[in-house]
Amino acid sequence: MTATHTAAEEGNDWLDDVLRADAHDRADYIGDDGFTARVMAALPAGRWTPAWRKPLILAAWACVALAALIAVPGIADRLLRGIAALIFGHRLSVTDVGAVLAMLVIATWSGIFFAARTD
Amino acid sequence: MAQPPVSDAQLIARSLVHDDRHAFGELVRRHQSAVRATLRRLASGNTALADDLAQETFVLAFRNLKSFRQEAKFSTWLYRIAYNVFLADARKTKELQLPEDMDADEVSPPELHAGSEARQVALKMDLERAMAVLSDAERAAIVQCYHNDLSHEEAAYVLDCPVGTVKTHILRAKLKLKERLRAWSPES
Fold first, then answer.
1. CA distance A9 to A16
2. B64, B139, B145: which to substitute to probe chain A, counting the most A Cβ within 10 Å?
3. Does CATH number 2.30.40.10 belong to domain B99-184?
4. Which of A5, A67, B76, B165 could bond to B72 as cystine, CB 3.0-4.6 Å?
5. Is pTM beyond 0.90 here?
6. Quick check: B21 and A40 CB within 8 A?
7. Which region, left, alpha or beta, applies to residue A72 given φ > 0 means left and ψ of -120 to 50 means alpha?
8. Which residues of A touch B76 (CB under 8 A)?
9. Nearest chain A CA: its distance from B100 CA (Å)
10. In chain B, what are the domain boundaries?
């Protein structure tokens, strides 16, 4: 949308002159006087996230996962065995399948929670 | 070496892609004067109301920045939001608006004002009063075309109406203004 000439340039009677003169007189710059700061303070907080937030959240989830592995004895071993059993086609116990499914559910919900928080 | 000025499009991209709040702040700083001046004219000089509406305009612009398609200039897009904000507020406070037909005696005869400066001040005051009796749409058309120096097409985008309607609003507005300001006409 490019204008070759503005609407105000088309009129040429005495009222056009009055309106153009009035517009010219009012064209002075209005000083900011804290207006921008008030706008920035009124903006919703949720839309923008700082650039460091995503890696921080990823690191936090990694810490939680590591803590869970350390805190629950045998969980890492069972998880690895379950994955290995799935990959190599060995018979699986119900407990092994349950452990793998539980970890998949936790990973999925963590992903959903993360995506929802950063959108 | 001086840095080249960053364009509005670059600031918008930084705001959207890099979540750069400072970039949006720069956009506000650049356009606050024009938006506030437009709203002051639409609000018939009520600066407090105009600044409140201007703040609302920028908050809405922030929320809807993703929908800005660069089909118009960023300033024109802001004028459009500002006009919608003004209309929404005007609908809420309709009963407080001035009656359509004010007393014609409020226009001061030019011959009362000796000296060209006094005449200019009196003319400004009379024009301000005359603008107040225009409908919101008529006043908005005058503000966009004369004060914001937009083309009819750009004004139509801002006011969200056909170009023909903008021209009609301006024609009607000028007829009303001429009637109200007939004492200032060179022929009188």
1. 9
2. B145
3. no
4. B76
5. no
6. yes
7. beta
8. 1
9. 20
10. 8-95, 99-184
